[in-house]
Amino acid sequence: MEEEALDHGELSLEEDVDRRKADRTMIQSNTTMSQEYIHDLTSNEPWKCTKQPRIDLQIRKRKWGWLGHVLRRRIDDITRQALG
What we know:
By secondary structure, the chain is an all-alpha fold. It folds into two domains: 11-40; 47-84. The chain is 73% helix and 0% strand. It is built from five helices and no strands. The protein has helices at 2-5, 13-40, 45-50, 55-71, 78-83. The longest helix is centred in the N-terminal third of the chain and has 28 residues, at 13-40.
């Protein structure tokens, strides 16, 4: 009956200590699992999970886009002249 008298927000001292121990154990086990999982990932797996192209491909695409932009400029433009 004493337990029924307690609100959901109020815990007895023993229950509070047990809950904190359980929380601490769960946090430690989740951290350990996360660290182990990170070490098991290959370099391509994060890209597959996020469905994004690799960064080197994104950089290459932007460089080619910039080059095309420069080549469409006037012949007397300084940027185009710098390309030779």
